[in-house]
Input
Amino acid sequence: MRRIIAQARKELTQIVRDYRTLTLALLLPLLLLLLLGAAIALTVTDLPIVVQDLDDSPASRALIDAFRASITFHVVTLPTNWQPQDTFTSNTARAALIIPVHFERDVVRGFNTTVQLLIDGSDSNTAQLVSGDASQIVNDYNQRNAGSTRPAAVQAAMRLWYNPNRSSKKFYGPGVFVLALSMFPPLLASLAMAKEGEQMTIMQVYVSSISAHEFLLGKIFAFMIVAFAESLIMMIFLFTYFGLSLAGDPTPFLVATVLYAFCVAAFGTMIGAAIPNQAAAMQAVALGGFLLVFMLSGLIYPVDNIPPGLRWVSSIIWGRYYIEIMRDALLQGGGWPATWFKVLIIAVIGAIFYGLAWRSMRRMQVRA
Amino acid sequence: MFRVFQNVFNYRVLALIRKEFRQIRRDRLLAIWLIVPPALQLLLFGFALSATVTDLRLGIVDDSRTRESRELISDLTESRSFLASGYYASVDDLSAALSRGDLAAGVVIPYDLTRNLERGRQTTVQFLLNAMNANTAAIAQSFAQGVMQSYNAGLAGQGIHASFQQIAAPDVARRGLVQLNPAYLYNPGLVNSWFIVTGMFGLLLILNGSLVTSGSMVKERERGTIEQLLMSPASTSEIIIAKIMPLFVLLCFVAVLAVGMLKFAFGVPFRGGLLLVLGGAALCILCGISIGTVIATFSKSAQQAQLASFFVNPPLASLSGAVTPIEAMPKVLQALTIFNPIHHFVAIARASLLKGSGIGALWPNFLALGAFTAVLVTVSVWRFRRQLS
Output
């Protein structure tokens, strides 16, 4: 134990001495959190929509005003002799509402009238949102104008739980937190470990009385402390700027944070031990820490949507489970019954990383 | 024109280019690193990533247990959007399942549904949606509302609505309903992968281009072979042109490969000119290579170059509109995307491949991409020269 602490202290001294890396290690995650937390979202606002009003009557203008009042759309009127598709091909609008001639006449006479909504389908998710929002606006318009005589027999009351104003920031904030935590501590750990191999200081470790386990644990503890420092800084911003708060029992989240810090530190150490070349080790961390966690952990796109043949890839991505635990702790509040399994998986993956690190450490020893 | 070409590609440059090609041919690993990961990533992400909302697990509390309530439930679950995941005895059980994450949505049908329908009274059915994921919640909400609408229309068809109209005001002053008729242009089946792969295409070209370039540039310096190049009569710009050339050719090969995958693996329709996309890709590759060169000139070792890419790549990737729509970003960040070459290429690729836009609509993007390329190439030549002297 004494030797583990000594090793961890030595490692921390090395990190603190290189103050440039230290500031980067503490500031970069924060920058990433603020930037990506704001930038990643799928729900669009202020989407440019062109309106071609062939009727130009009070009724049609009232319908356009209903669209104008929505935060999803930003209405641009289009001269009637223009083709709405041209605004799609030049990327100036994403949807076009076409109100036919005699719109008001038909509505007042009591006929049902069809208005056309052309939607640019090249971004299919946005297209779905546009169509959903537009039909809600039109429903509301009908309710106001024709509704008093036509109550719907069965009404749907929507209750949005856990994130009532559908804030993207609250959903993606915890995810980016996990992404930052999956990138930077393993990056530093892999660099430190690869440096030992590159500069052959690992020899000194071999001749000293420290065992492989003590050496690895010491290193991992040092980078766990870095991870804790990073997560503390980011957590302050999650609770203030992102407006999140603990939703339920925080213990699964705390336990998972400790385990996840171990998991990523062990991942970095494993990479560093397996690839004793700093540049190549960094590339491996970039692939594992950034690309895989960014894309396949359910951070942006739901894991459920991955086709079953490929879903196993995401079930071995360690970040995925921690993201789910974070979201549960900060939004859903399911506590242990919802998360015990995920906490366990993080522990198992961490143990596997540790085991692999230990093995490649031993192999290095044999080679040296 | 030919004279200029001859001046740029004089015999010195040609010899240097031959040397670079030979180097790459010996360094098989570099060529493999350049071609295989982007191809695999495009395939993996194209097939794996999707924002489509289908099969939301729906929990049901049916307090009514009548023909009408069962009909409503089957209306909800027969679409691809909701999947009946379980029946619960009470709302408490349902909310517990929601908070465990077992369910994505829940519906609560009151005990008096049928009685109210028969008496012509309005009934409220409650939907509980797990709105953690803002996007899924928004789409699920409009799905549910759509189903309720058609359920109501069905009731009206069965004559149940007649009793409603009796209790309502007389029908004389009734205004007609406005019906929205949405049509999805360019992608009527709403295939989500088309959006993803056209975005990933640009992302991978730039990220891989810059990464490999900075790596190979730094390597030359780390080994000290750059001094030998400097001793040769070739000028710095000639050295840079020769260095860029083979990477450019290889990345162009990657681009053609990616276009092939877009066409045959993902079935992206090629509605616009292929030349437009390839021209954009070529500019995009030059941009990526110059970003890599600039990074390489600022860093002393391969390690620093990699760290710098760690710094540059995430914002470059996330502020491009390649994987998430630009319109969903805050206004300030939206303005920043015009400085992102990935954004312009992705706009070109999407508009040209999916919508058939021509150069008449896309020239601003080409202009921006060309300007970036020019600026970045100049900066990299300037940095390179300064660093050498």
Notes: DSSP finds 16 helices and five strands in chain B. Chain B touches chain A through 116 residues (CB under 8 Å).
